[in-house]
Specification:
The complex is a heterodimer of chains A (325) and B (315). Helix content of chain A is 47%, strand content 18%. By secondary structure, chain A is α/β, with parallel strands linked by helices. Classes of the chains: A alpha/beta (325), B mainly alpha (315).
Chain lengths: 325, 315
């Protein structure tokens, strides 16, 4: 009987062998090539898939080996830290990280520093105070100017409402640097316009389903709301579905952030007014190029803002990243 | 008959252990980075949080119960602990508060299951939401970050080059093993899971001991929260999502039956290590995280299939 169950166990191991064995050649052949690791927040969000595409193109051109890893869930910083620890054990040449938490990622950065592996940060800024306290070092930050993006969204809404109207906001997960920057950029513009009143500002935790529910509740308590700024497109799209369920499709000025494919479709269809586009593919590309340059002893910019732009019905067809997804 | 019972009890452990050893050998052959002291310590440390929670889960599952609230309790006790630390409460007291929040939440589960007669699935599903909501409410959704080096030593410290979380994990497993094999509570846990009615009739205070098991599960979630908070230097109200599934997986891979009445602590440790080694190995090999999820899922299914095959032979 003992025999049977050991056979079953070894069958399980054999299955693993099969699934991993095909990767072996790659691993062994690459020992003399630079290995750059890209650790994302998740691989199931179109934004990060675009980032991956950009990074892969750059790695292919430069002839470096690129390892792309991410935790199963976007908010799981601890798993992201595990991935980074494992990549340190693998002795990669450089690590590019899109942090799942601005402060929580700091211990992992310090570990990479100690192992002599340079760290580049993409998309979400690391908390500079926490980093300094822990004595960590980051070689470069490559990311969208989220604050500027929030401002652009604010200016667009003010202009469309002609300086007078009631506005609702869907926030991201509190404490996320990206969401906070977008929000404060938006507030900086809107708060100075006396005719604009913010009637509700609540979080929908970056999620489409929650965007639907939270906005449905906002519509119940403030049916007179005229515009919505959502800190990402998923929440904006959820809100648009809530509007359509309420029979008010296209009735509100909805502005999102990220300009993902679904949002572009909604903008073209007129159910969404605009979305601030980031260029994740560019971020991935610059991250790999900068890591490569750094490893060759060149100096790279400490801070590299990737420009943002507002996508509206006028320019949605012409916008360059639309073909990516 | 005795021999058959013996092979049933231990054969399953050998099977799981053989799986772990086989996996280790495969990874050793595939990558030079796996079998190094620093990587093995790395794996042990990464396994510790799940492994500690899984001890409580094992006790609960042996009583034929389930605890879906452990991940949320990790978050809730983590944020309460964090606020205590930031309020400059002495370290031992702050740790005790964190553990107490965990134990209390678990005990509430136990009371709802025993005196409230709720099925464990429902009671702990409710607590999963209550504890998560409490954590979010308590912090306003924001993480609490930045603690003393003294506290963070619990995750960053080493004794004889062994990371402290690993030492804590080993102690928890030793205690768990002793409780399950050498104490009255341990015997009652098996008795309740084997046949609750019979346990009641033979004079076991089932309600008390069942509630104690859930309290213990909560307490260990509180302990995991301490290590997690020290590791990230931050307590997040959204921490620990899906930890319950990892803990259940480790328990099940380790040979504990969801039907209750059977299971061993050491099996759970091996189960947790298999999951940790898999994640680590697949990272080292640079394999996509999508494949990682598929492989871990397949291992769970295979482990349970193995259990069922064994059970068939037993009867």
């Amino acid at each position: 009987m003992k025999g049977t169950n050991q056979i079953i166990t070894f069958l399980a191991v054999a299955l693993l062998l099969l699934s991993t064995g095909c990767q072996r050649g790659k691993d062994a052949a690459a020992s003399d090539v630079l290995t750059i690791a890209l650790v994302m927040k998740t691989l199931n969000n179109p934004f990060f898939i675009d980032m991956e595409t950009g990074a892969r193109e750059a790695a292919g051109k430069l002839g470096v080996q690129l390892l792309i890893q991410a935790p199963d869930r976007e908010a799981d910083v601890e798993k992201q830290m595990q991935v980074i620890e494992n990549l340190i054990q693998r002795k990669v040449s450089a690590i590019c990280i899109a942090p799942s938490g601005s402060k929580e990622i700091v211990p992992a950065i310090v570990k990479a520093n100690r192992a002599g592996i340079p760290v580049l940060i993409i998309d979400t800024r690391v908390d500079s105070i926490a980093l300094a306290e822990a004595g960590g070092r980051v070689a470069s930050f490559i990311g969208s100017d989220n604050f500027q993006g929030g401002r652009i969204a604010g200016e667009f809404i003010v202009e469309q409402l002609a300086g007078r109207g009631k506005v609702a906001i869907l926030e991201g997960i509190p404490g996320h640097e990206t969401g906070d920057a977008r929000l404060s950029g938006f507030h900086q513009v809107v708060d100075q316009v006396p005719g604009i009143e913010i009637v509700a500002s609540q979080t929908a935790n970056w999620e489409r389903g929650q965007g639907y529910n939270v906005f449905q509740n906002i519509l119940q308590s403030h049916p007179e709301v005229q515009a919505l700024f959502a800190c990402n497109d998923l929440m904006a799209l959820g809100a648009i579905e809530a509007l359509s369920a309420a029979g008010r499709s296209g009735d509100l000025l909805v502005v999102g952030f990220d300009a993902i494919q679904d949002a572009r479709t909604a903008i073209a269809a007129g159910t969404m007014a605009g979305s601030v586009a980031q260029h994740p593919a560019e971020m991935g590309k610059f991250a790999v190029e900068f890591a490569h340059a750094l490893l060759r002893g060149e100096t790279i910019p400490e801070n590299f803002p990737v420009p943002v732009e507002l996508i509206t019905r006028q320019n949605v067809a012409a916008s360059p990243t639309a073909a990516n997804n | 008959m005795r021999l058959k019972a013996f092979t049933w009890e231990y054969g399953r452990q050998f099977g799981t252990l053989a799986g772990l050893v086989g996996l280790t050998l495969v990874l050793w052959a595939l990558t030079p980075h796996f079998m190094t002291v620093s990587n093995l310590m790395n794996v042990a440390q990464q396994t510790s949080i799940n492994a500690i929670i899984a001890v409580g889960m094992t006790l609960v599952i042996i009583t034929a119960g389930i605890d879906l609230s452990v991940g949320s309790i990790v978050a809730f006790s983590g944020v309460v602990l964090a606020s205590a630390l930031q309020a400059d409460i002495p370290l031992p007291l702050a740790l005790a508060i964190g553990l107490a929040v965990g134990a209390f939440s678990g005990w509430m589960n136990g009371l709802l299951i025993t005196y409230g007669r709720l099925p464990p699935f429902i009671s702990t599903l409710g607590m999963m939401s209550v504890a998560r909501g409490s954590a979010l409410l308590y912090t306003g959704g924001r993480p609490i970050s930045g603690f003393s080096a003294e506290f963070r030593y619990l995750a960053t410290g080493e004794i004889l080059n062994i990371p402290l979380p690993v030492i804590i994990m080993v102690i928890v497993y030793l205690l768990g093993h002793i409780v399950l094999t050498r104490t009255k509570l341990g015997r009652y846990v098996y008795a309740i899971g084997g046949n609750e009615q019979a346990a009641v009739l033979s004079g076991v205070n089932v309600k008390f001991h069942k509630a104690a098991v859930y309290a213990l599960s909560g307490l260990l979630s509180g302990l995991a929260a301490i290590i997690l908070t020290a590791r990230l230097n931050s307590a997040q109200p959204i921490a620990g999502i899906m930890y319950e599934l990892d803990a259940i997986a480790a328990t099940v891979i380790g040979g504990t039956s969801l039907m209750g009445g059977s299971g061993r602590i050491i099996g759970t440790l091996i189960g947790a290590l298999i999951m940790g080694v898999l994640r680590n190995g697949l990272n080292l090999l640079g394999i996509s995280s999508f494949i990682q999820q598929t492989v871990i899922g397949s291992v769970i299914i295979l482990a349970v299939l193995m259990d069922m095959a064994l059970k068939k032979q037993r009867t």
